[in-house]
């Protein structure tokens, strides 16, 4: 099992601990932090942390709430989510319903654009065709519901600006 903490020499550890104290970082060795502060410090030893300031994704560890593909610990099997501007999009589930993606395109694009005349989605394995936009997003898209809804909301906001 891989470790996600950068190893430091004893001298580096002393310097790191001084940096932690100077920057008032309180969750360095807390298991819930899921951040490799030692790796961050080793790469950016002169960084001055301001209270509330966000550290880069580069040293987030698997299990962090916003672990992303920008982390050095992301792998093809555990690549994390990704950022779209300031919005975090979680890693897609590997358990997808077996629906031909080309059948989804017109329905999902229509849904996201708010088109009430979009072609109906293909029938699901459960034997019914959903008509509620949220049910369509939840049942058909290979994206998590939160991502589908975020996409729908983004298209709606864009349409309102026009």
Summarize the structure.
By secondary structure, the protein is mainly α.
Topology of helices and strands:
Layout: H1 10-22, H2 37-43, E1 82-84, E2 87-89, H3 101-113, H4 133-140, H5 145-161
Antiparallel strand pairs: 1-2
Helix pairs in contact: 3-4
Task: Please name the defining characteristics of this protein.
5 helices; mainly alpha; 162 residues; 2 strands; 2 domains
How would you sum up this structure, described in words?
With 162 residues, the chain is mostly helical. The chain has two domains: 10-81, no CATH class; 101-161, no CATH class. The chain has helices at residues 10-22, 37-43, 101-113, 133-140, 145-161; strands at residues 82-84, 87-89. It has a two-stranded antiparallel sheet with strand order 1-2. Strand 1 and strand 2 form a beta hairpin. Helix 3 (101-113) runs antiparallel to helix 4 (133-140). The longest helix is centred in the C-terminal third of the chain and has 17 residues, at 145-161. The model is unreliable at 94-104, 121-133 and 135-142 (pLDDT under 50).
Order of helices and strands: HHEEHHH
Write down the domain tally. Answer: 2
Tertiary shape: elongated
In total, the number of strands is: 2
Approximately how much beta-strand content do the residues carry? Answer: under 5%
Measured between the Cα atoms of the first and last residue, the distance is: 52 Å
- Major sheet attributes: 2 strands, antiparallel
Low-pLDDT stretches:
94-104, 121-133, 135-142
In round numbers, the mean pLDDT is: 72
> What's the helical proportion of residues?
25-40%
What multimeric state do the chains show?
A: single chain
Sheet with most strands: strand arrangement: 1-2
User: How large, in whole angstroms, is the Cα Rg?
Assistant: 22 Å
Number of helical elements: 5
The assigned structural class equals: mainly alpha
């Amino acid at each position: 099992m891989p470790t996600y903490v950068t190893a430091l020499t004893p001298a580096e550890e002393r310097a790191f601990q001084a940096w932690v104290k100077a920057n008032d970082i309180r969750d360095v060795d807390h298991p819930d932090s899921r951040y490799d502060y030692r790796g961050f410090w080793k790469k950016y030893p002169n960084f001055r942390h301001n209270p509330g300031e966000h550290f880069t994704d580069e040293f987030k560890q698997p299990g962090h709430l916003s672990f992303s593909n920008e982390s050095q610990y992301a792998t093809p099997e555990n690549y994390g989510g990704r950022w779209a501007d300031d919005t975090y999009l979680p890693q897609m589930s590997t358990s997808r319903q077996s629906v031909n993606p080309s059948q989804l395109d017109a329905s999902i694009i229509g849904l996201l654009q708010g088109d009430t005349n979009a072609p109906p989605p293909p029938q699901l394995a459960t034997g019914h065709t959903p008509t509620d936009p949220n049910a369509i997003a939840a049942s058909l898209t290979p994206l998590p519901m939160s991502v589908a809804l975020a996409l729908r909301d983004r298209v709606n906001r864009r349409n309102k600006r026009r």
